[in-house]
Amino acid sequence: MNMLDLDAPYLRLDTAILESNIRAMSASAQARGLGLWPHAKTHKSVEIARRQLDAGAAGLTVATVGEAEVFARAGAPGIFIAYPLWVTPARAERLLKVASQTQLRIGVDSPSAADQLARFGIPAEVMIEVDSGHHRSGCPPEAAGALAAHARRLGLTVAGVFTFPGHSYAPGRGDAAADDEGRAVSEAVAGLKNAGVAAPVVSGGSSPSAAYSRSVLTDIRPGVYVFNDAQQLELGACTPEEIALTVVATVVSKPAGRMVLDAGTKTLGADRAVWASGHGRLLEHPDARITAASEHHATVEMSGPLPALGSRILVVPNHACNAVNLHDQYVLTGGSAALGADGGSAGPVTWAVDARGMN
Amino acid sequence: MNMLDLDAPYLRLDTAILESNIRAMSASAQARGLGLWPHAKTHKSVEIARRQLDAGAAGLTVATVGEAEVFARAGAPGIFIAYPLWVTPARAERLLKVASQTQLRIGVDSPSAADQLARFGIPAEVMIEVDSGHHRSGCPPEAAGALAAHARRLGLTVAGVFTFPGHSYAPGRGDAAADDEGRAVSEAVAGLKNAGVAAPVVSGGSSPSAAYSRSVLTDIRPGVYVFNDAQQLELGACTPEEIALTVVATVVSKPAGRMVLDAGTKTLGADRAVWASGHGRLLEHPDARITAASEHHATVEMSGPLPALGSRILVVPNHACNAVNLHDQYVLTGGSAALGADGGSAGPVTWAVDARGMN
């Protein structure tokens, strides 16, 4: 089967670049003495998680109970739900099963959430979430000690603290966000110590701030690095050669000097940060900009001759995590993984997006 | 089964409001003598399409071949793929099958796309797409006549012209966009007449411009009206009472006077127009604003006392079409459709998002 016979738009994964990205992050974490817990919400794929673990990851980070179920079943040695879960009876049953399959850690940022965990007897370690400046979830650093002490009084085991310095997602903010992160988790760790809670884990990091992360961290949870995307490119956190994931689109319309592709927000996602140059980038046309996107249209402006109608174009989504969740499978290319067992004649090799929609 | 036992976030559909929205649009189209071809990309649901057809819709509009397959199989009498499709060999096979099941119309905005349709012998009627000011796909109105003549020379049947006045999606722009639409399709229709192509259909409309649409139209293709969403609300195209679709979320965190819900861009979609007040609205808290959204977090600012941790909150997505495509099913509420055959004791009634991911 020829790749042109595949109906576009589809998700294309270059496995050679994927494996190189996985190796590079493992080497970087190891060199800095950091435990690597890759965030699997980015890829939602058992095949990719297995490669991350084989390359030295200590465990996997996830955002939801559904993701935890998929990766626990697949044999991950440890799973950290880095999210302030609210445990309900239905959810408790599922968490008990996950905890029987793997070492489970769960984020907590309020006494009430800790109460729920204890009430249902979930045998998970608690990770105290701290707000380091992103102002999303997470308790203030100065409240971490009291929260940890509360959890311990409930009989829960506190493994440590974590934060997501998401305010690093703006041009030139990586270093300052890492600074905030270092200060916040240091204060939280001191608070735990003052409260008499000995908890060894200090987990942090975001892709744009990872290179700057301070030595107080023991663990990192990068996600997007496996694929990279237009956001990371435009923030300077990756090069074009490190982009493993694209959406293959078709040129369907060329009115009045512009070009319209059949990949839109239902295949690329609708993320567009205020600082983004557009709705994604074209891997092979660095000067092109996607100036508008609707569900099934990406409008491209570029200099030079426009590709012919019917041409296939590789689109780099702004945000890989949301793009992946819109697809059921990856179509592999690049390196030996793209070949089927019989050498490739049987058609394209695909990997499932196993946890798609489990949000 | 209690609705609280359902693991949130999930998609909640009030069927009483849904049915009222369907009836109102059918009555409005009938009163104006317009053929109603609802856009099924919004709901991707056979159950909902059936109700639209039962209420008097002439056929269904879709955006992709995958959607056409789902609704042709379900027995839709006519399907209009309102998109400038590029036909490949693999796609031709699928289109031939769809054309054997229903009356098929396909959008065309270039001579080359018409050539492809003819080359593969797809027995579909051609609809010429015209740009009426949205500047996405569509040929200029003055080019419609020549394109229609070209299609006819290829042996294709030209059914008419269509446009999408998508530039209506901004506050106060509905009337002006309807004006542009009227002018563009009138020029296109005149062009077809000059080229000797008699084609009866003139299809247009968008939800914010529908109320203003000019009498030159014969057909309309509204989509979002079945559900409505935060965009339509903020554009004044619907009232809160006409909103049938919400995402049920849980309050998971309440740090420092704000509230964080567990519905984010992976369950609500990431659409946020420049004029939108935030990343969605809370149905029961009209003054609340979602000031930030990430994949699994919606950060809410509101006055008055915040709901308790663990509370369920009804979130109105900014853009229903993208929100629906993130879910596998609707959970029904409101009216008799929410009751199971045995009166509701067997658990929640759901409808599948049949064409989810077929983008």
UniProtKB/TrEMBL annotation, chains A, B:
InterPro entries, sorted: Ala_racemase_N (IPR001608), D-amino_acid_metab_enzyme (IPR051466), D-ser_dehydrat-like_dom (IPR026956), D-ser_dehydrat-like_sf (IPR042208), PLP-binding_barrel (IPR029066)
SMART domains registered for this protein in UniProt: D-ser_dehydrat
Entry keyword set: Isomerase, Lyase
Domain of life: Bacteria
Stored Pfam families: Ala_racemase_N (PF01168), D-ser_dehydrat (PF14031)
Coiled coil: none
Family listed: Belongs to the DSD1 family.
Name of the protein: Alanine racemase
